[in-house]
Amino acid sequence: MSGTGPFGLWLEKPVAASCVALSILAVSLAVIGVPSEKRGGAREAPAYGVILRHYGVDGREMERSIALPLEEALSALPGLNSLSTVSENGMVRAFARFNTGVRGAYEAFREAVQRVYETLPSSVQRPELVSGDDRRLPVWSAVVVPSGEKPLPERLGILLERELKPALESIEGSGEVELAGTGLTELVIALKNEAALARGVSASFLAAFLGAQDLLLPGGELRTGTGNILINVDGRYGTGEELSEALIPLP
What we know:
Elements: H1 5-11, H2 14-33, H3 36-39, E1 47-53, H4 59-75, E2 80-88, E3 91-98, H5 105-118, E4 128-131, H6 154-169, H7 193-198, H8 203-213, E5 216-223, E6 228-234, H9 240-244
Antiparallel strand pairs: 1-3, 1-4, 2-3, 5-6
């Protein structure tokens, strides 16, 4: 068969014409076969996060007591794509991303978090659930440590709160800025159980006694010619050394 013009030249070569036709058909099928969500913009995979706080607990204990049980519970969820946790002093953040199209991911995530929370001490704060993406996870962290054995001065905490935090929040695109360790100083007491039991003293008794001695009470008013001055009676332990010298009554 012969013809004139460019199409006639292709028709004289049946093998070449067949290849071109198959190529056009393949491209057509590829375009038609793309899912509608791809052509109209890919649907994002669901992602959820949770924050658990346990004030006064160091990062290693947060990892052991909260992060590990949370990872074990979340890793068993169907359709989970990735899981990451961050353990800090007094806080654990967990972020889970699921495969696209997974149904009931949020409900399963929330129930798993609740099951873990119910096994934790009552002093652990209620879970804070966040969803959407991983922008609530910290993208930059820094630690300020003393150069010697002396504790950080209180004025440094005030400087971080009043100067550094507003400066970081003013950066374009920045989200939430959190500071830890700038509040009241907390002392963690490691009780020697054998020594306490040998003296007939329990941990609950020690906690109650030390709490009763660590007082900050109103002490009335001082009247002057210009007005009244409130008086506070401060009987709190000021340092760890003072606490170590506290007299504990025995039975």
